[in-house]
Amino acid sequence: MDVVARLRDLVTDPAAVSDDDDVREAHGRDISPHPPRSPEVVVFPSATAEIQAVLRFAGEHRLAVVPFGLGTSVEGQVIPVEGGISLDLSRMREILDVRPDDFLARVQAGVTRVQLNERLAHEGVFFPVDPGVDASIGGMVGTNASGTNAVRYGVMRDNVLGVEAVLADGTILRTGGMAVKSSAGYDLTRLFVGSEGTLGVISEVTLRIHRLPQFVMAARAVFPDLHAAAHAATRLIQSGMAIARVELLDEVTIAAVNAYSGTAYPARPTLFLEFSGSEVSVRHDVATAERIAAAAGAGPLEAEEDEEARARLWDARHHAALAIMATAPAKKLMSTDVCVPVSALADAVAEARRVVEAEGVTCAILGHVGDGNYHTVFMVDPDDEAEVARAARINAEIVRFALSRHGTCTGEHGIGLGKRAYLREERGAAVDAMQAIKRALDPNGILNPGKVLG
Amino acid sequence: MDVVARLRDLVTDPAAVSDDDDVREAHGRDISPHPPRSPEVVVFPSATAEIQAVLRFAGEHRLAVVPFGLGTSVEGQVIPVEGGISLDLSRMREILDVRPDDFLARVQAGVTRVQLNERLAHEGVFFPVDPGVDASIGGMVGTNASGTNAVRYGVMRDNVLGVEAVLADGTILRTGGMAVKSSAGYDLTRLFVGSEGTLGVISEVTLRIHRLPQFVMAARAVFPDLHAAAHAATRLIQSGMAIARVELLDEVTIAAVNAYSGTAYPARPTLFLEFSGSEVSVRHDVATAERIAAAAGAGPLEAEEDEEARARLWDARHHAALAIMATAPAKKLMSTDVCVPVSALADAVAEARRVVEAEGVTCAILGHVGDGNYHTVFMVDPDDEAEVARAARINAEIVRFALSRHGTCTGEHGIGLGKRAYLREERGAAVDAMQAIKRALDPNGILNPGKVLG
Question: CA A329 to CA A327: how far, in whole Å?
Answer without folding.
Answer: 6
